[in-house]
Each structure stands twice: as C-alpha cells, then as structure tokens.
Amino acid sequence: MLLRLAWRQSLIRLLLFYALALGIGLVLDEPWWALGIATAVLAARAYWRLYRVLRFLDWRKQLRTVDGQGLWAALETLIHRRQTENRTRSRRLVRLLRAYRQAATAMPDGALVIHRRDGRLVWFNKTARHLVGLRYPQSLTEPLADFFPEQPRVREWLASGQTDEPLTDVASPADPMVRISLRLIPYSPTQWLVVVRDVTKLMRLEQVRRDFVANVSHELRTPLTVVHGYLDMIEPEEHPDLAVMVEEMRRQSQRMTQLVEDLLTLSRLEAQEHLPEEPLGMASMLVTLRREAEALSQGRHQIVVEDLAGCDLTGSVKELHSAFSNLVSNAVRYTPTDGRITIRFSRTADAGARLAVIDSGYGIPAQHLPRITERFYRVSTSRSRESGGTGLGLSIVKHVLSLHQGRLEIESEVGRGSTFACVFGPARVRARSAAEA
Ligand code: ADP
User: Fold this and answer.
1) Which of 28, 44, 324, 340 is the most buried if burial means most Cβ atoms within 10 Å?
2) β-strand partners of 179
3) Ligand 1 neighbour 393 (Cβ under 6 A)
4) Atom 2 in ligand 1: which residue has the minimum CA distance?
5) Where do the TM regions start and end (predicted)?
C-alpha cells in the first residue's frame, strides 16, 4: 500500500518537474538546456538521498525522521521500521539474558559450565565460586579438575562423563569441612553443566545414621550372646513342657544374631572406601560355592557349576565370597525341591567377567525388581522369614560389588526362576594362576 502510493506520487512529481522545466525552457527558448539542468538536479538529489540511506544503514545510527514523500521516503520509512523492530528485539533479548544470568547467579546450588573436551571452565556462578574456591575471572579457562588436586576421583569422574550418578561426598577445595556433590548435565554438544551442591548436613546425618546402626548392632551383640548361651543350656528333654517354647526362642535369637551380624557387615562395608586387592582363585571359589549350595540344599536340588571363563579375579576374597554365597543361598532358599541351580562363571563381551547364579525357583514379579536390593525389602516377608532371611543379603551383595566397581544384574520371571549376576569390568580380571588351572 505504502509502496504503491509512493510509486504513484513519485511518478506524478517527476512528470510535473520535467513539465515545469520544459515550460521554463520553452519560455527561455532553451528547452534542451532546461531538461539537462532538471536531470542534473534530480541526479544530485538522488545521490544525496542514497548517501543518507547508506549512512543510516550503518548499524550504529538510527534513522530519526523521514524526509518528504515518495520512493526515497518510503525506503527510509521501511528502514526506520526494521531498525526499530531490531532494536526492540535485541533489547528484549539482552533483558532476557540478563534475567537468566541473574537467576543462575542467585541459585542456591553452584552452577558451572565446562568444555566437554578438556573440562576447562567457561562460566560459573557465585555459589560455585564459594564451594569450589574459584576466583573471577582468573579461574576461567582453567580445567575444573585442577581445583581438586588431592582428590583424583574428581578427575576420573569428569573424564568418564558419568551423567546418571552424581559424585558425592567430595571435600570442598575452599574448606575441607564442607562436603559437596557434583552432578554432570549434558546441555550442549560441546559443554557440560556441572551442578555443585553443599551436602555437608546430609553427609553428617548419613554418618549419624550409620554410627547409630553400627552402635546399636554392636550393643545388641553381647546381650544376644548371653541369651543364646542360656538358651543352649536348657535341655528340652529335661523340660518337655517348655520344649516348644525353647525351640522357638532359639530360632528367634538365632535370627536376631544373624540380623545383627548382617547389619554390622553393612556398616563395615559402608565405612570402607577401598578393599584389599587380593588374587581370587575362581576354580577353588566355585568348588566352595558348590559345597555350600549342597550343604544348604541337603540334596533337594540339582546343583550345576559351569566354569567357562578360565580366568581369575582380583578383589577382597572375604567380601566377594560373602556376596557370591549370599546369591547361592538365596537361590537355594527360593527354589522349591527338585529345582535346578546353576553357578556359571563366564567372560563378558567387554573382556570383563560374570558370575551368575541361575535358579529355576519362584521368581520375582517385575514390579519388585527395582527395589529388591534395598535393605529389608522382601517380595514375600513370610517366605523370607521361614527360610531364615534377614532382608539384608542383596544390599550386602550390591555394596560389595560397588566396592569392586562391579554391578548386580537381575533377571527374573515368576514361576520360571531368577538369574542374579555379578558383573566385573576388565580391570578385575586376571589370568588364571597355574595352581588354579
Ligand atoms: P532375604 O534375607 O530376605 O533373602 P535378600 O536381600 O537376600 O533378603 O533378598 C531380598 C528379597 O529378594 C528376598 O526376600 C526374596 O523375596 C527376593 N529374592 C532374593 N533372591 C531370590 C531368588 N533367587 N529367587 C526369588 N526371590 C529372591
């Protein structure tokens, strides 16, 4: 609309201008001169307007007024409109950016942006500055891991790029009394967002809980031993009227002792960061596991041992034995008579190793699987109690495996059986010793 009107106006004005020039030329009897001068005036005016437009197209200058009418004025109007729109948009963007920055800065958690490739810092907020001991702007472009020189696990964790599990209980470089947790969030193809949280209180509470459980378990141990001792001294034959009661009391005190022992084992494992690195001969371990399974089963199950890996492991012999035994004992306890239990030691595709305990037992409904390794979690409390379970076995297994950088894989189908597999990385595998082969 604006353009069509401008076209029309310009054309009319041009024609009028030339008509006027021609009129004056005819009066002066010099029409060609008059037309020539008119053309020169028009060209000069066009150059002047072009210069003005070009000057205002320079991004620093804003066109303030639009001069006159016609095509040049229409062009200036359009430029003016675009310029105003662009300025408004960029002002809005700057405001938004500032608001986001302010929000990120005001966050109670520390936030840092680092390059994925080398972990160098790109940006960090105020909380991160306090929690990690950074200085602005000196710390920018420094690798984040360099701020944790005494904690190599931070460097390893950053290098591994683990986004699902945060790294917890890290001492803050600014104040070792402050404990922090770090979480990696992939937010662009080239950068990570690292969220740093002060978990000092949480860690203290966790410590209080751990100490409490360990102390209670420890305190219960002595009275239980005394009760157990006295119960053992009562001969049911001498007191036939008390026989049933004594038998039940013995069973319950045994259960309590087992509970206390399992709780103490868990506390001990939780307090440990590293376990001894010992060679673990798997051939003899498999023989021991078979013997234990047979002793527990009392001939009620078919026990099969398959040694397909031809390698050994490294780790804590005692803890790994306890984890494997737990799985074997579960398989026996949760498999009805005539069932089959297979203990299979094999290699994994990534050159690691896997000890699987496969049973043809009751199986576990799928909805229970995600919680099965929680303390005291049982699919069927009565079945667990009847079979002498404490509900702590799988928690212990999971802990032992995580201390060996391994994991527990569980597959199960109700009525068909379950497979519990301890999976170890290649770093835990060692060639089988001659004595074991
Ligand atoms: P518990 O001492 O009760 O056996 P665990 O931590 O060892 O405790 O196991 C937790 C629960 O997982 C058990 O109560 C049982 O319901 C289930 N479970 C463990 N192993 C098996 C298995 N091989 N087959 C079926 N259910 C199992």
Assistant:
1) 324
2) 171
3) yes
4) 389
5) 12-28
294 neighbors 332 (Cβ within 8 angstroms)? no
The three-class DSSP label of residue 114 is strand
Residue whose CA is closest, atom 21 of ligand 1?
330
**Number of the ligand 1 atom closest to the C-alpha atom of 262:** 2
Q: Which residues of the chain are modeled with pLDDT < 70?
A: 1-2, 59-67, 434-437
Q: Where are the domains of the chain?
A: 2-102, 108-198, 202-271, 278-431
- Spacing of C-alpha 266 from chain mean position: 25
Which CATH class for the 278-431 domain?
Answer: alpha beta
**Residue 330 beta carbon below 6 angstroms from any ligand 1 atom:** yes
Which residue among 261, 266, 335, 372 is best mutated to probe the pocket of ligand 1, counting the most ligand atoms within 8 A of its Cβ?
372
- The SS3 assignment for 42 reads helix
User: Of 384, 390, 419, 420, which is best to mutate to test ligand 1, by the most ligand atoms within 8 angstroms of its C-beta?
Assistant: 384
Summarize the chain as % helix, strand, coil (round to 5): 55, 20, 30
Write phi, then psi, for 396 (nearest 5 degrees). -65, -45
pLDDT at 437: 56
State the pLDDT at residue 97. Answer: 92
How far, in Å, is the centroid of ligand 1 from the Cα of 220? 25
Q: Residue 234: what pLDDT?
A: 87
User: Position 274: which residue type?
Assistant: H
Measured in whole angstroms, the distance separating CA 279 from the mean position of its chain's CA atoms is 32
Asked if the 202-271 domain carries CATH number 1.10.287.130, the reply is yes
pLDDT (tens digit per residue) in 348-390 = 999 999 999 999 999 999 999 999 999 988 888 777 777 778 8
